[in-house]
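[retry 2/3] Pre-rRNA processing protein: previous attempt timed out, resubmitting with same input.
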Amino acid sequence: MTANESTPLLTQATDSLASLLPSGPSKKSVWKRYKLDVWIPIILISAFLVTFTSIFFIRVEPNLGDYVAQGTTFDSDQVKFLGVDDQGGINLQVKGTSVNNYTNIEDSFARFYFKTGGLFVRKLNLKIDDLDLIVFDETKGDYKNLGKVQISPFAVKIVDGKETDLNLFLTVFPKSGGVLGIIKRILLAPKSKLRLKGDASVKILVFNGYIPITNLLIPLDLDIPTSLIKSITSDNVRFQNVELEKGEGNGMNCNFNVLIDENPIENLQKLINFPQFSIPELDWNLRVDDCNELPSIKLASLKSSNFEIVESVDDVSFKGLNISVSIGIANVGDDLTKRCNPEDELDITTPMSMFVDNLVNNNIAHVVIAGNEVSNYPETLSELFQKVQLPINLPVNTTSLTSKFVHNVTVENLTFEMKDGSTPVINGDLKIFIKLGTNANIDVDELSVDKIGGGADLLYQGSKFSNLTLVDWNPATTTKLVDSNDDQVYLYVESPMKDILLDITDMVLFQKIVQDVFSSGGVLVDIDALVNLMITCPFGEFEIDDIEVDGSTVFAL
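[retry 2/3] Pre-rRNA processing protein: success.
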């Protein structure tokens, strides 16, 4: 059979093949099912995200700062000073640990949000814009802006119960008025209630780009201890390696070490949880009060070495501070020695005598340490540093301190006679050795004792028999001596005593002394003296009274 052109071969074949296929859904129904399989999960996920986001913006975002403060704590281990940048910022490195405990969040929605968020996202890379530090004083009802803080981006775990070891790099731009005002407030009113707030925009890193989330306003209540800075007592302060040397022009330099056995800022460290402070080398001006008790007279320039203050922890006690100090005493002219009441001839009070009297009589050196202009710091920070004025009452045990300088006192060629046949007087040469230390580059033209006064008790075999009083100032000469054995430098002060009245307090003992002198030619007498010195130095002439010294001499007729 031969097919012609009208035979429908393809149609027949197609129909026969189609009859073999199973019946199924139409193309329209398949497309509908595909759309449901895709869009239903999208709708569900979108609904969850919308709900999750809505909770954030409605219930969480307005008080995000409070929730962060409730659910996260940061314990700092170390604060290290890294230097100062060209814009006047103070660069700090802060090491510590961030701990998440979202159970402490009071709001249930916020607590659920934080715990749920940690299940999906384990860690966030954060960037914080410039942080404004604001302090609110509840007792006065006013605010003070402490300045701005720049924080380098950092990563933090957000899973509940997890810890993050943080190494933060901060740059602080302090505002002088706010900072100094708060410091003054804390020192003068240690029971003040302060509330610290930080206001900044936080951004989260997503796909290599930072997305801003919200502003944070985090409150932190600070309970100020009754004594924020401990008073330093004379028992806890020691001076070592005191040396004097010639300075520029007519000035003098004094180098020494200050040893402090007790941590004066321990309460402050506990308050702000900074167990370790690194203090850089600093330059200061040392000022003393004028006649009106205002710290207007610059006495010296002071440079303190860098040192660290480490808080006592567990069994590790405070190791003490050892600060190297260099003081350059300038030629201050007549400011220190100018009489406060020149109209009153009997009143010889000067700023220097006021300072020395307080030092000798009260064992207190009252000074004001003021920040000095620093050329290697930016101008803004230098201006802030110059506004710092710290009044300090430094306890100084003058008895202990002067005993280190006054090496020995003696009276040579001491003789006794009855003037006019009835008045007992003595004659002799009073000699004092003042130890300045090794290699002290000081000439007698720059530091000398020109006059000596005071009085002494004379003792024989441990019992007092007489008072000796120098009613008027005795002239004195000063000579510089160097011990060839140990290179110790001394000022040798000699003052002749002529016809000094002897006040006999124990006549029986004195008669025994006279008998012993007649029998042996001389006896050993002890001297317990309070010496007054009139000292001349580059910044003028001043008086030091009641320096306790002792010695002995041979008493003869």
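[retry 2/3] Pre-rRNA processing protein: The chain has three domains: 46-223, 234-396, 404-555.
[retry 2/3] clearing retry counter.
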